Each structure stands twice: as C-alpha cells, then as structure tokens.
Sequence to fold (160 residues):
Amino acid sequence: MSEVVIEPATFEDLDELSNLLGELFTEESDFRPDKHKQLHGLRLIFEQPNRGRVFVLRQDRTIVGMINLLFTISTAEGGFVVLLEDLVVHKTYQGKGYGSQLLEYAINFAKQKNFLRLTLLTDRPELRSQNFFKRHGFYESPMMPMRLLLATNTPPEITL
Fold:
C-alpha cells in the first residue's frame, strides 16, 4: 500500500515545484511557463511564511501535486483571507482524488487559522476545473477580475 502525505513544501522541493507550475502554466491561457519566475515566486513565499504557504502531496515520497496559498487582508471581511494561487497535480496522477485531497487540506488549514474567505481564479473556458471547485463549495462571484501588468521581463532579485 502506498503512503500518501500532505505536508509543507521545503526549499529542497523548489525545482520540482517549478516544474509542476510549468505544467500548469502550459494549460492556462493567461500565463506562460518561465522557470526563473516560478522559482523566484516560490522563494518569496518560502522566505516569509506570513506571505503564504505551499503544501505538497507526496505518494511514497514523490511529489505528485501542490497547492499554493497566499495571505492578505480583506477590508470587506474585516480580517485575513486566503488567495488560492495554484493547485496542480502531475498529469500522470490526475483522476485519483489527489487534487481534492490538496484542496480539502487547504480549506481545513484556512479554517484552523481562522481565515475568513478563500478566493481563487480559474480559466473561464475550463468547465472541468470550475465544476471541480464547485463540488468543494466554491461559487461564482459577480465580481470580474481585471489585471494591469506592471513588469513583463524577468523579475529582479528583491530584498525585503
């Protein structure tokens, strides 16, 4: 019987996590894989745990999926909220319930830490992912996301 565990990601996982994000960003219309950017973003989270958490699902010590949660404050809710930034499972492991396990873990984590809301973005034409999140209690918001890209090149090394 294989061992499945969800736990916080570590710096040693960075390369594998950036590869997973590369898989995800090849499927999302708004993004393009860029290993340097993905590594930089993950490091920014790891260096300051008050920014968020990255959890991995391991099967027999092999990373098969990840979920990335970012923390912010909502004036509408009057407290801390979570942005679910990334949820991805390796293609070869999809359809086995691992995405649901990661999402349920993240929801329970947010509840235990007394976060007030969990928000995510999903591709509009991707009905499969929308239905997945709806099965877990998410609903469509009447609000529409909008973006203004401020930098299009490689991120600088930021010292905080």
